Amino acid sequence: MNYPDIFFLYRSRPSQAGMTTLLVVGFMAVFMLILGTITSYAFQQAKYGRALFAREQALHIAEAGLENYRWLIAHNTSAGGTMMTTGAGLSSLPSTYAVSDPEGGAVGNATLSASPSLQCGAVQWADITSVGRAATGVGFPQTLLARYMKRSVAEYAFLYNSMVWFGSTNTGVGPYHSNSGMRMDGSTNSTVTAGVSQVWCDSTAASLGCNGVSPNPAAGWKSGVFGNSLTTSLWQYPVSTVDFSGMAVNFSSLKGYAQTAGVMLNPTSVTRAGVTQGSSFSSVSASDTKGFHLIFKSNGTVDVYRVTATNGDTIYSYNGVDGWRYDYPVIASESLVANVSVPSGCTLIYSQAKTWIEGTVSGKVTLIAADTGSYVPDIMLNNNITYATTDGTTGFTAVAEGSLQVGLVVPDTLSLRGIFVAQTGAYGRDYYYPSSGYLPAEYYQYNTRSRLYVTGSLVVNQRGGLCWVSGVGCTSGFLARTNSYDRVLAFSPPPFTPAVTTDYSLVLWREQ
After folding, report:
1. Fewer Cβ neighbours under 10 Å: the N or C end of the chain?
2. Do 370 and 417 belong to one domain?
3. Residue 350, domain extent
4. Residue 107: inside a domain, yes or no?
5. What is the pLDDT of residue 16?
6. Whole-angstrom Cα distance, residue 254 to residue 203?
7. In what order do the strands lie in the sheet with 164-166?
8. By C-alpha distance, which of 481, 501, 480, 499 is closest to 490?
9. How sure is the predictor about 431, in pLDDT bands with cuts at 50, 70 and 90?
10. 14: cis peptide before it, omega within 30°?
């Protein structure tokens, strides 16, 4: 018998048992590591889920706070009705709103604050901030910002009170609306709406060209929106009308603001915040042959000229009354009154005379051309109107008590930026009879122009014309027209821009 071999076998068994123990311990360690990882992941996911739930709740709580604040502004009478006129009382509204679930009790709280935007001492809109915190997770707040204001006319590319005809060479970007019916032969990328279900169309000049000659349809009743456009899927009629009388600018109030804190173009003088600029002069008001010529500068100032003489011509115009009349579109002589800086706290210019405008606008400026007497002045779009910046910090609104007329002597490609409003009149470029002999011969080269670009909004009471057709194509006016609305200005328009509603609402809603 070989004892060493037996001894060897006897001693090998404890070694194998130890190895098994090590393996078991190793597997248990791996298992515990995996179990710990899974458990930690499960806890983290549960924590993350609770955080998501708290954030979601906080978002709804913040939104509830906005709605509550809107209700308080609309119904609070302790401020004497001045809350959305002067801003008084906005900061005294409750700053905390407790949100409760009828079945589950307290949900959380919203902390609120409001900051009014003031111009000339009057509120333009109020920015409301709402911070929501859920009771289940106060460490996960959500912040909402919203603007409380009346909806602006800047939401439209074109807004008409009367019937209107857009020709085949018209290109539109943004909503088009007419209270009284529309013929649309051009192209658009947004809604085209009318406030009527049907419109009568015949061959008269005041109608929409229904004479049965291709491509014109035969006379008769047409849909509220009709025409040869390819974008008929965007047409809607009838829809609610826009109240032009309700959105009319209160000229008396704006005149008072301009006299006190803005720029006032009086018949015989120019003032800035009540201080006379330059020298006084003979009256330029109540006359189509005189007025003011404004050239806006990129540095925020305006060159104010008084127009002392004009050249006239025989024109054809709708402008409320179809037919020929004599007009004075071209400045013959003028003199500089002053270079005026527009006050930052009241960027309002009020003119009591016919006003020619052009140049580069800086900041947000509003021009009013109105006369509290019997004379109804027009605004002449005399040259390019551009912006110093296009990031939303610049905007221009021009409101004419009468009409908006595109001048005769303008560039072949004319660019206009802004919100243009003809409160009682029309928008267009009148038909100039070629070589009538009333104007110097060199002016007739401007009879037809290639293209008109308008970036912004056109708000017009009466129908006008930009392309006057005799035979084939335009014989006077612009051969092509492109209109694009400025969406940024819909939420932050220049001061006292007309609104399409009388009610305030929350716009520009965003999460911070």
Report:
1. N
2. yes
3. 154-511
4. yes
5. 65
6. 42
7. 164-166, 182-184, 225-226
8. 499
9. confident
10. no
CB 405 within 8 A of CB 379: yes
pLDDT confidence band for 436 (50 / 70 / 90): low
Question: In this structure, is residue 4 part of a structural domain?
Answer: no
81: confidence class by pLDDT, cuts 50, 70, 90 = low
Q: Which residues are registered as beta bridge partners of 291?
A: 307
* Average pLDDT estimate for 107-134: 93
337 within a domain of the structure (yes/no): yes
Q: Quick one: which H or E segment has residue 59?
A: helix 3-75
**Which pLDDT score, from 0 to 100, does residue 230 have?**
86
**pTM listed for this prediction:** 0.88
Q: Report DSSP letters for 335-374, one per residue.
A: EEEEEEEPPTT--EEEESS-EEEEEEE-SEEEEEE--SSS
Query: Are residues 217 and 226 in contact, defined by beta-carbon separation less than 8 angstroms?
Result: yes
pLDDT for 481 equals 92
pLDDT reported for residue 471? 64
Cβ atoms < 10 Å from Cβ of 216 = 17
Q: Clarify whether residues 147 and 162 are in a common domain.
A: no
Residue ending a domain, among 152, 173, 207, is: 152
State residue 8's pLDDT score: 45
One domain for residues 109 and 159: no
Residues 378 and 342 in one domain: yes
Looking at the fold, whether 455 and 419 belong to one and the same domain comes out as: yes
Give me the percent of the chain exceeding a pLDDT of 70.
92
Judge whether 36 lies within some domain.
no
- Radius of gyration for the alpha carbons in the chain, expressed in angstroms and rounded: 34
Q: Which of 152, 167, 197 is the last residue of a domain?
A: 152
Instruction: Kindly report the backbone phi and psi dihedral angles of residue 373, in degrees, each rounded to the nearest multiple of 5, phi listed first.
Output: -90, -155
Residue closest to 279 by CA, chosen among 257, 304, 302:
304
Dump pLDDT digits (tens) for 216-250: 999 999 999 999 998 899 999 999 999 998 889 99
Name the average pLDDT for the chain.
89
Q: What's the structural domain count of the chain?
A: 2
Instruction: Burial-class residue 503 by CB neighbours within 10 Å (0-12, 13-18, 19+).
Output: exposed
How far is the C-alpha of 399 from the C-alpha of 414, rounded, in Å? 20
